[in-house]
Amino acid sequence: MKTIRFVLNGKETSIEVEDNETLLYALRERLGITSVKEGCGIGECGTCTVLVDDEPHYSCLTLASKANGRDIKTVEYLSSSGVLHPLQEAFIRSGAVQCGYCTPGMLLSAYSLLLRNADPDAHDIKEAISGNLCRCTGYIQIEEAIKNAAEICKCHSQD
Amino acid sequence: MLPKFASVIARTKDEALSWLSSLENPKIIAGGTDLMVKMRAGKHYSHVIDVAGIPELLTMTEKDGRISIGPAMTHARLSAEASIVRSARSLALACGLVGSPQIRNMGTIGGNLGNASPAADSIPPLLIHDAVLTLESRDASRKVPLEEAIVAPYVTSIDGKELIGSIEISPLRGYREGYRRVAKRATWAISRLGVAFAIREEDGRFTDARLAIGSCTPMPFRAKKVEVLLKGAPKNEATISEAIRMALEEMKLISGIRPSYAYKLPVLQGILEEVLRG
């Protein structure tokens, strides 16, 4: 076992993990964050996506020990103030959530995009979510939601 | 769950090399995008040494006309690195096409080489830039051209006690350079065919042409016979069709006729025509 310390959704966190444990396992089983899901377990679906220092990573392919000293965000971060993030509101409005299994990962990839690029075009959005599969194939609604959220976030930042 | 192993995080290259030489059945991990999948499928190592955070393996330097790339640099970083975009455009493009954004944020160029897949996107560009690997162990260091480092699909001549210390390439300036690939879908797909090219022309002649082809032969290969033919040759349809004929012949010589060639040969021909005509 090893002790790892990291910032999880803005809070200093310290846990004991096994050497051969994935970050996905640690988040779900030790910290109870079940929004991070195991789909394929081999980096081919994206539902385990978390942000590591604000970049999307697959937590199923990440050793838990790699989180030490890093900033880890899961979808809970987006509404940690108690209010839904504009991206989440936009997903609801556009009907971008069907079964919901891909949604936490989609939201994180979208959030990371908006951090890097406040004014993404259609190609940027497709590229940003290209590592997240939606088996309900609701990509059009997801892309639309991200576009709308980007516009709302831009308005906010100009206030 | 993964098979049991002990893991250590190396803070310096020396620490990693010392562990590599002393620990039993060790394996280097960087991004983990290939290794974690293999371990999940049952591949067992006693010790896993994480080198992803070693500063010496994360830096890029330019010296004596060569660029030295830190092997723990991620695909995402290389695809955006100004000097790579400027002097090794095919590499920047290829790194930008690997897997998905998540894979590019995690996976490293050293890992891509160590894994030595016939379809590794970074390898054809590295071949046209005359890549040389510095392989280090606790007691020695040697330089090996990339072409000699990969000996069979997924097999390298890198010893179990060695670490890729750096990847040196020659920058190419004044070339028309790029990377073209064909995959089953636009993104998050393994290349079925990849062509790295860098071409310099003057007064209607090819003065230098470099071509490397991936995913068609057991190891990506640099079409050196074709390059010799093109050097100094007039840029016309006769030269181009002879060059393509030679490239396809060379491929068949290396691999024999493979079932996939019914598709790949005509596609490669089309890509090479576009690339050489420019």
Jot down its keywords.
heterodimer, A: 159 residues, alpha+beta, Ubiquitin-like (UB roll), five-stranded mixed beta sheet, globular, B: 278 residues, Uridine Diphospho-n-acetylenolpyruvylglucosamine Reductase, domain 3, Enolase-like, domain 1, five-stranded antiparallel beta sheet, 27% strand
Question: Could you characterize the architecture of this molecule?
Answer:
The complex is a heterodimer of chains A (159) and B (278). Chain A is of the alpha+beta class and 159 residues long. Chain A contains five helices and five strands; from the N terminus they run E-E-H-E-E-E-H-H-H-H. Chain A has helices at 23-30, 86-94, 103-116, 122-128, 139-158; strands at residues 2-8, 11-17, 49-52, 55-58, 71-73. In chain A, strand 1 (2-8) and strand 2 form a beta hairpin. In chain A, helix 2 runs antiparallel to helix 5 (139-158). Chain B has 278 residues and is α+β, with helices and mostly antiparallel strands. Chain B has helices spanning 13-22, 35-40, 75-80, 82-87, 89-95, 101-106, 109-115, 123-128, 146-149, 224-230, 237-255, 261-277; strands at residues 6-9, 26-29, 47-50, 60-63, 66-69, 132-136, 141-145, 150-152, 155-156, 163-169, 176-183, 191-202, 205-214, 221-222. In chain B, strand 11 (176-183) and strand 12 form a beta hairpin. In chain B, helix 10 (224-230) packs antiparallel against helix 11 (237-255) and helix 11 (237-255) packs antiparallel against helix 12 (261-277). The chains are: A alpha+beta (159), B alpha+beta (278).
Name of the CATH architecture of the largest domain in chain B: 2-Layer Sandwich
Per CATH, what is the topology of the largest domain in chain A? Ubiquitin-like (UB roll)
The ordered string of helix (H) and strand (E) elements of chain B is EHEHEEEHHHHHHEEHEEEEEEEHHH
Instruction: Note the total helix count of chain A.
Output: 5
Query: How far apart, in Å, are the first and last alpha carbons of chain A?
Result: 49 Å
- Helices and strands of chain A, in order, run as EEHEEEHHHH
Biggest sheet character of chain A: 5 strands, mixed
CATH class of the largest domain in chain B reads Alpha Beta
In the CATH hierarchy, what is the architecture of the largest domain in chain A at level 2? Roll
How does the overall form of chain B come out from the CA principal axes?
globular
The N- to C-terminal Cα distance of chain B equals 50 Å
Helix content of chain B: 25-40%
Average residue pLDDT of chain B: 95
How many domain units of chain A?
A: 2
